[in-house]
Amino acid sequence: MAEALAKLTDSLYSDSKPITATDLLFRLRTDSDSIRPGLQNLLLILKRGVEADADGKLGLQSWTDLQIQAVYSLAYAVVSSSRSLSVEQAEAIIVATVQLSLEFAVCYLERSDFGSADMSIQVLFSFVFLYCSQAMLE
Questions:
Q1: Residue among 36, 38, 37 at smallest CA distance from 28
Q2: Alpha-carbon distance 52 to 111, whole Å?
Q3: Which of 2, 102, 113, 131 has its CA 20 to 30 A from that of 90?
């Protein structure tokens, strides 16, 4: 899992910016440079983050801020890279990642207790929520 996520991370950024939609689709469809395993792992992580246990506590509520920020960074890169794609152009795994990223951001904002020191992460998740919402409408 770690190797697939590392490859996904390396593949999603070019010069510290998310790659283009064309590059995302190419890297997803090319066997030798496929990012599909990394996207599948990211989906599993996002699902675990938004699933509730028997006590109603979400998975992400037991994660550290660094773990949440790492998931957010990968999700943000996928959303940014796929933003110009229509649902018809995007593969199902990309659409699912964008949808779960939005759910993850909403769950985080709903369930988190923010202090004044936590405002930066709240702003980040507010941004990804708005960004995903806009991407889903296009």
A1: 36
A2: 11
A3: 2
For 82, residues 6+ apart whose C-beta sits below 8 A from its C-beta are 21, 24, 90, 94, 97, 98, 135
Continuous segment of H or E residues that includes residue 81: helix 65-82
- pLDDT digit string (tens) for 36-90? 999 999 999 999 999 999 999 999 999 998 898 899 889 888 888 888 888 788 8
> Given the DSSP bridges, would you call strands 13-14 and 17-18 parallel, antiparallel or unpaired?
antiparallel
Contacts of 5 (CB under 8 A, 6+ apart): 38, 41, 42, 74
Q: pTM for this one?
A: 0.82
Q: Is the pLDDT reported for residue 32 higher than 70? A: no
The residue to which tokens 């599993």 are assigned? 44
The strand pairing partners of 52, in sequence order, are 58
Q: How many CB atoms lie within 10 A of CB 10?
A: 11
Task: Report the DSSP beta bridge partners of residue 13.
Answer: 18
